[in-house]
Each structure stands twice: as structure tokens, then as C-alpha cells.
């Protein structure tokens, strides 16, 4: 299976529409890949909080349309990263119309929407994304011909329970778009490898380059195999990271070293 991670540089001098056109062109250039992955909030920048409201779009808005066509033109499965989604009256949000979410879009090679995922763990503690955007409530997996994707976003990487849930739902390849800051890059690499090892799954983690609202980005998109071996890693600048991997290695790893079978669930807390 061939995957291309497009580590987009978000330049504040480039308009959202211009970047959208440029990224669509980059996706089309990946014809021949099986899967293409984009980063988190690449239209605005993950730390450009003041832009979320003005640049938010409905699920089937301009980014949806551009990425659906790019996926179809290239004939690839496309994880189109995430967008700041503004809900409509028929969006299925408990918060109602007008709420914001950090929403990922996955398209099939025919350009159909295969899945969407609203980020569950929002970053910022008491500011930024954590207060501006709603929290998703549903785990999302996407069956591909040769593997099943488990979808997560950026800060989700720090919460192993989410990934256990994805594995229990059949995930074999964990796809994580992100806008991860350079100052915590060591955590990015460490956690990507940890999620791969503990879940005996491939991890495809695609970050951004450039600077978002004054926050330098880590870049260093990474592909890790089920044993924790780094198959490929990008640098700090805009780059397309392409790697070939064998999805069957997940089943082989889980058979040869069946650690997941030894999980003990439902443990009781200590007695007081």
C-alpha cells in the first residue's frame, strides 16, 4: 500500500482560497497512491484561533467540494485533514446550528464522502480551540480495500483510550492529522511510536509546516509500523512524505506477539 502525507506549510500571506487550490493540485499529483493524508486545519492554521469563526464552513462547503474533486481526479482515498466546521440545522449536532467543530473529512477514490470525524479532545485548556469548538462524541473507522483506518486528530494523540476504542472497532492503520507545535516535537514522535506499539497498528501522522499565529510548527510527519519502527519521517518544511507499507503486517504482528489478548478490562479502583 502506498501512502502520501502532504505536510503543508501554512503561510499567513497566502489566502485560504489560494491554499485550497494549491493543495487540491498537490493531491492530484499523488495519482497512483492508495491513500493521501493532509494535516489538521490546514485552511486556517491550527493556532489561528481568531480565524476559526470567519473561515468556518459547512461540512459540504468549499473545502469539501475541492477535496472531493481532487480525490476523484487522482483516484485516491483522501483523508483531507480537518476544517473548522460551522454546523447547519441539518448537521446532526446536539449544539444546534452555528456551532463550530474541528472536523475531518475522508473521501473515497470516486470523490464520495466516506466518513467525517469531529475531534473529541480539544486543545487549549481554558482558551482557544477548547472553548471555541464543540467536542465530538463518536469514534470513526473507515474500511479500505486493504486496511481499516482509525481516525483521530492532533491532541487526541495524547489519549490512549481513544485508540484502544478504535482498535476494538477494527482499526489497523491509525491516521492522525495535526497542527503540532515545534516546541513539543519530541512528544509528537514519542507518542506516535507509542500508539503504534501499544495498538500493534500502523500510524500515519501528518503535521503542518510554517507558523500559525506566531506558533512555529513541528512538521516531521511520520509513518510508524506495528513494531514501532519509523518507516519514514519528514523534515520541518513543506514536504510530501511517501511510503510503501504492507497492511498485512498488522495481523502478523498481532499473531506473533498477541499482547492485545492479555488486556485486563473492568479493573476496580483501590479500596479506601
From TrEMBL:
The UniProt record lists the keyword Transmembrane helix: no
Protein keywords: Hydrolase
CN hydrolase domain ranges (all copies): 1-247
Gene3D superfamilies assigned: Carbon-nitrogen hydrolase
Span of the signal peptide: none
Pfam assignment, any one: CN_hydrolase
PROSITE patterns, alphabetized: CN_HYDROLASE (PS50263), UPF0012 (PS01227)
Family the entry assigns: Belongs to the carbon-nitrogen hydrolase superfamily. NIT1/NIT2 family.
Protein name in the entry: Carbon-nitrogen family hydrolase
Organism (species): Streptomyces coacervatus
Amino acid at each position: 500500500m502506498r501512502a502520501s502525507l502532504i505536510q503543508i506549510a501554512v503561510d499567513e500571506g497566502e489566502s485560504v482560497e489560494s491554499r485550497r487550490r494549491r493543495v487540491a493540485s498537490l493531491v492530484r499529483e499523488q495519482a497512483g497512491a492508495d491513500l493521501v493524508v493532509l494535516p489538521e486545519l490546514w485552511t486556517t492554521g491550527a493556532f489561528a484561533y481568531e480565524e476559526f469563526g470567519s473561515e468556518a464552513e459547512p461540512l459540504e462547503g468549499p473545502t469539501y467540494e475541492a477535496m472531493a474533486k481532487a480525490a476523484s481526479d487522482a483516484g485516491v482515498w483522501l483523508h483531507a485533514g480537518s476544517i473548522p466546521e460551522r454546523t447547519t440545522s441539518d448537521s446532526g449536532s446536539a449544539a444546534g446550528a452555528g456551532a463550530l467543530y474541528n472536523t475531518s473529512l475522508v473521501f473515497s477514490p470516486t470523490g464520495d464522502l466516506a466518513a467525517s470525524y469531529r475531534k473529541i479532545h480539544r486543545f487549549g485548556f481554558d482558551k482557544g480551540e477548547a472553548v471555541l469548538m464543540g467536542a465530538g462524541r463518536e469514534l470513526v473507522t473507515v474500511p479500505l480495500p486493504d486496511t481499516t483506518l482509525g481516525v483521530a486528530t492532533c491532541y487526541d494523540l495524547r489519549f490512549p483510550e481513544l485508540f484502544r476504542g478504535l482498535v476494538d472497532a477494527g482499526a489497523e492503520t491509525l491516521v492522525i492529522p495535526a497542527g503540532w507545535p515545534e516546541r513539543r516535537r519530541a512528544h509528537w514522535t514519542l507518542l506516535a511510536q507509542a500508539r503504534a506499539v501499544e495498538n500493534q497498528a500502523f500510524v500515519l501522522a501528518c503535521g503542518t509546516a510554517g507558523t500559525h499565529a506566531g506558533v512555529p510548527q513541528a512538521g516531521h510527519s511520520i509513518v510508524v509500523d506495528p513494531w514501532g519502527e519509523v518507516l519514514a519521517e519528514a523534515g520541518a518544511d513543506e514536504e510530501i512524505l511517501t511510503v510503501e507499507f504492507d497492511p498485512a503486517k498488522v495481523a502478523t504482528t498481532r499473531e506473533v506477539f498477541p499482547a492485545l489478548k492479555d488486556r485486563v478490562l473492568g479493573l476496580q479502583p483501590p479500596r479506601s
